[in-house]
UniProtKB/TrEMBL annotation:
<dbReference type="GO" id="GO:0022857">
    <property type="term" value="F:transmembrane transporter activity"/>
</dbReference>
<dbReference type="Pfam" id="PF02687">
    <property type="entry name" value="FtsX"/>
</dbReference>
<dbReference type="InterPro" id="IPR050250">
    <property type="entry name" value="Macrolide_Exporter_MacB"/>
</dbReference>
<keyword id="KW-1133">Transmembrane helix</keyword>
<dbReference type="GO" id="GO:0005886">
    <property type="term" value="C:plasma membrane"/>
</dbReference>
<feature type="transmembrane region" description="Helical">
    <location>
        <begin position="806"/>
        <end position="827"/>
    </location>
</feature>
<feature type="domain" description="ABC3 transporter permease C-terminal">
    <location>
        <begin position="271"/>
        <end position="386"/>
    </location>
</feature>
<feature type="transmembrane region" description="Helical">
    <location>
        <begin position="266"/>
        <end position="288"/>
    </location>
</feature>
<feature type="transmembrane region" description="Helical">
    <location>
        <begin position="761"/>
        <end position="786"/>
    </location>
</feature>
<comment type="similarity">
    <text>Belongs to the ABC-4 integral membrane protein family.</text>
</comment>
<keyword id="KW-0812">Transmembrane</keyword>
<feature type="transmembrane region" description="Helical">
    <location>
        <begin position="714"/>
        <end position="740"/>
    </location>
</feature>
<protein>
    <submittedName>
        <fullName>Putative ABC transport system permease protein</fullName>
    </submittedName>
</protein>
<keyword id="KW-1003">Cell membrane</keyword>
<dbReference type="InterPro" id="IPR003838">
    <property type="entry name" value="ABC3_permease_C"/>
</dbReference>
<feature type="domain" description="ABC3 transporter permease C-terminal">
    <location>
        <begin position="718"/>
        <end position="834"/>
    </location>
</feature>
<feature type="transmembrane region" description="Helical">
    <location>
        <begin position="433"/>
        <end position="454"/>
    </location>
</feature>
């Protein structure tokens, strides 16, 4: 048997058939563009957010090296740097620490580092470069500002350097300077030259400095492998090969990278992709299906000429591929642009320092193109099978509706009623009706969910979480980081003198202070009973609870609160017990919060009535009540200790027994009529202290409004595009439905139906489809909205869920308007041809 090569002919038929349906092509290409755009946007946003989070983590870790070998002597360094697994490396020698009085609140480490270390540590010189001479140094701009040194190459920098316990006071010459954030790693770094190392520290034995714990003149070798998979195993392999036993570190930024650290984080984005693919599928499939039905006689004629079912499928497949080739690049370009636009908005939700990094990974474009292509191919495959299965005889008789087999003859005593005919017509093509209703309903339900979640945001709840008065003066993030690391300084908080000055401002009615002190609680039998079962079931690679048990103590935070904070405590904040203000004021009672244990539900070690001994205060207290872990959030440090908890007691008690307590914050209540002058006075008092932050209630309100605007932009933008796809589907269904029934309508008119009756029947059909959509959305849709929106709201901070029917009710008039406009436009195009012309049409 000789096989003929007719691929060219099939391709020409597909292309010419495609060019004969330009209006259809525009709608399909638009659907492909929208589908690709949305999927690309999600891929771009997810990968860019992950890359940005990874960059922040790396900057916090200090570099993008995979790992490091620490405290090396020259022989160990030589063995390690020559290992074949290490593709790149950088060397740093610890020299000492700057101890000038101007720098007492910050740790400035002084190192000798090579250029590779500098490049991998996100240090970009504003001017100059690494030091070469013995008296040259590189510093960051904020440390120069603290020292009063101008940002100028050649400027003199007088430093007191602590080298292994001895102070070297020396004038340096600035050889370069760079910008840095004082609150992240590598911020407090200065770099000296190799001649300086040779002159001042080369005589120090690295092994002896390791024994004393100073580590001066030891070398850190930072390394890069071929990839970041299994970093620790690669480091251990290097040590095994070299026979060395030295300390090492793994860059934790590679093992805790944001979105990909937990597959659950990707679930919402995966659901979004599925919703978009479903919406795109409904539209593209519907258009191809209607197109095949419309052209079914054409495919039947092709079959009579010998075209095989496989070739008919290929014709539709070629058309789908060509339309995809047109729409895909447009969707990818627009989607990438939209993803880059949305990334900064979404990253602004992070409470950590963030830096935007836009991903240009091939995964974005390959993944989006693949998912979009899968959507198009699935959508086009079933219409292709429909065209392939039908016989030539059936195709000639096909009128676009089901008939014959199983068809019921309807009888009526009242004659044919237009509204009954319209109702029956809807169910003649049940599949088309289901697809249209599903597409419309999906877009309305999505909009309803987003609107309900956004309307559940509570500005008051947000404000109460951060501020209880009109203004708050508090320790800034840098001071909080010192507190988090248990390195509180005496002057990082709000001073008593400043509090007195604030109280003296005309218009200030009261001032509520919060005192803070860190403490540890020995793990006794009570705590051990709670922690040991958790430690037994935790991940061996992350033995957090096990480590806490080995340490023998848990960290707790002591907060002394003024009486003005008592009214902030709500009944909903109390888990067990009750709060009696007068008894609490006696100083014999404390309030404690539940314990935060990572992914485990919050629990408590103590119950109301139990005694708790606070070692740093030298006194035992009775637990009055147990609060939720986030209760009195505005009064606290706003961070949590794993396995620890917060203790609240009267401010007077803290002042009396905690000598190292600092004033964490001072909440100011004012006379509303004097708000402007109080605000100016507070600014003048706090502007000179870089460790303090002043914020007003209005500042927090604007922050919350900004968050809501971002949600509105992203949420409503997504729902608008999904709704646009649904409306396109509806419009296409109505228009092509009317066009495919031209012959049927001509027959009805020929037996007596007037054009007015025909128009009324079409209007009824459109209104019935809207009515069914309303019924679906008003029943199943409300239930889905309630379940999803409530689930999202309950897992988000600062929301108070309440169901809102406004979006559903507001959409119905719009749908009715669209139905009337589309139906009348379809009717108008129909009546341009006479009855005779329509009856003579082949299609």
């Amino acid at each position: 048997m000789v096989r003929s090569s007719n691929g060219g002919a099939i391709s020409r038929i597909a292309k010419r058939s495609l060019s004969a349906n330009r209006s259809r092509n525009i709608i399909i290409v638009s659907a492909i563009v929208l589908t690709t755009l949305l999927i690309t946007t999600i891929f771009t946003t997810v990968l860019s957010m992950n890359q940005s989070m990874q960059l922040v983590q790396m900057k916090t870790a200090g570099s993008d090296f995979h790992g490091s070998f620490k405290y090396l002597n020259p022989e160990e360094l030589q063995k390690l740097e020559s290992h074949p697994s290490i593709k790149d490396y950088g060397k740093s020698v610890l020299v000492g620490e700057a101890v000038n009085d101007e720098l007492k609140d910050y740790r400035i480490e002084i190192d000798y580092s090579d250029m590779s270390t500098i490049e991998h540590s996100f240090i970009h010189f504003i001017a100059g470069g690494l030091p070469a001479a013995e008296n040259e140094i590189v510093m960051n701009t904020w440390s120069l500002d603290l020292l009063g040194v101008p940002h100028k190459i050649g400027a003199t920098v007088d430093l007191d350097v602590d080298i292994d316990g001895k102070i070297l006071s020396k004038p340096f010459v600035l050889s370069g300077y760079y910008e840095a954030d004082k609150h992240i790693a590598m911020a407090g770094m200065a770099f000296v030259s190799e001649p300086f190392v040779q002159k001042y520290i080369s005589h120090i034995d690295p092994e002896e400095s390791k024994q004393t714990g100073s580590y001066i003149n030891t070398t850190r070798l930072d390394v890069m492998f071929s990839n970041s998979i299994g970093i620790e195993k690669k480091i251990q392999k290097v040590l095994s090969d070299t026979g060395l036993d030295v300390s090492y570190g793994v860059n934790w930024a590679y093992s805790s990278v944001g979105l990909f650290s937990d597959p659950i984080n990707l679930l919402p984005y995966g659901l979004l992709v599925l919703i978009i693919m479903l919406s795109g599928y409904l539209l593209i499939y519907n258009i191809f299906h209607i197109s095949v039905v419309r052209d079914i006689k054409f495919y039947g004629l092709l079959k009579t000429m010998g075209t095989t079912p496989r070739q008919l499928k290929k014709i539709i497949s070629i058309q789908a591929n060509l339309l995809y080739a047109v729409g895909m690049p447009i969707g990818l370009a627009l989607g990438y642009g939209m993803g880059c636009w949305l990334t900064p908005m979404l990253m602004s939700f992070s409470t950590e320092n963030s830096e935007i990094s836009y991903s240009f990974s091939p995964l974005i474009f390959v993944g989006a193109a693949l998912f979009s292509y899968i959507t198009v191919r699935i959508a086009a495959s079933r219409p292709g099978r429909t065209a392939a299965r039908i016989s030539p005889v059936e195709a000639v008789k096909f009128a676009g509706v089901n008939g014959g087999k199983g068809r019921k003859i309807r009888k009526s005593l009242h004659g044919a009623k237009l509204h009954r005919m319209a109702f029956a017509n809807l169910f003649r093509q049940k599949k088309k009706l289901v697809l249209m209703l599903a597409s419309l309903s999906l877009s309305i339900i999505l909009f309803s969910v987003i609107y309900t979640v956004i309307s559940s945001f509570s500005v008051n709840k947000y404000l109460n979480a951060f501020i209880s008065g009109d203004y708050v003066v508090k320790a800034n993030n840098g001071a909080i980081e010192n507190i988090r690391r248990d390195e509180p300084q005496a002057d990082v908080g709000v001073s008593e003198e400043l509090c007195q000055a604030i109280s003296a401002i005309d218009g200030v009615t009261s001032l509520d202070k919060v005192y803070y002190s860190g403490d540890t609680l020995p793990i006794d039998e009570r705590l051990r009973k709670v922690l040991e079962p958790i430690a037994a079931n935790e991940n061996p690679e992350e033995p957090v609870t096990t480590s806490i048990l080995k340490s023998g103590a848990v960290s707790i935070q002591l907060h002394g609160i003024d009486r003005g904070w008592y009214d902030v405590i709500q009944k909903s904040d109390i888990v067990s017990g009750s709060f009696d203000q007068e008894k609490f004021e006696t100083g014999n009672y404390v309030l404690i919060t539940e314990t935060t244990l990572r992914e485990i539900e919050d629990i408590t070690y103590y119950e109301p009535g139990d005694q708790i001994k606070l070692g740093s205060l030298g006194k035992s207290y009775e637990v009055m009540a147990v609060l939720k872990s986030d209760a009195l959030y505005a009064a606290g440090t706003q961070f949590f200790n794993v396995a620890g908890f917060k203790v609240f007691l009267p401010a007077n008690e803290m002042r009396q027994h905690a000598e190292d307590a600092i004033i964490l914050s001072a909440t100011v209540h004012i006379d509303p009529e004097k708000e402007a002058q109080v605000g100016n006075a507070l600014s003048s008092l706090t502007n000179s202290n870089q460790n303090l932050t002043l914020k007003s209630r209005e500042d927090y309100k604007e922050e919350m409004k900004g968050f809501i605007r971002i949600f509105q932009t992203v949420g409503y933008g997504l729902s608008f595009i999904i709704a646009f796809i649904g409306i396109l589907n509806y419009i296409n269904t109505i228009l092509t439905g009317v066009i495919s029934r031209r012959n049927e309508f001509a027959i009805l008119e020929s037996v007596g139906m007037t054009r007015k009756q025909l128009k009324k029947m079409l209007i009824y059909e459109g209104l019935y489809s809207i009515l069914f959509t309303c019924l679906i959305v008003g029943t199943v849709g409300i239930y889905i909205t309630y379940q999803i929106a409530r689930g999202i709201s309950e897992n988000m901070a600062f929301t108070v869920f309440h169901m809102n029917p406004i979006p559903i009710l507001s959409v119905f008039p719009l749908l009715i308007g669209i139905s009337l406009i589309v139906t009348l436009a379809a009717y108008k195009s129909l009546t341009k041809a006479t009855i005779v012309e329509r009856l003579r049409e082949v299609e």
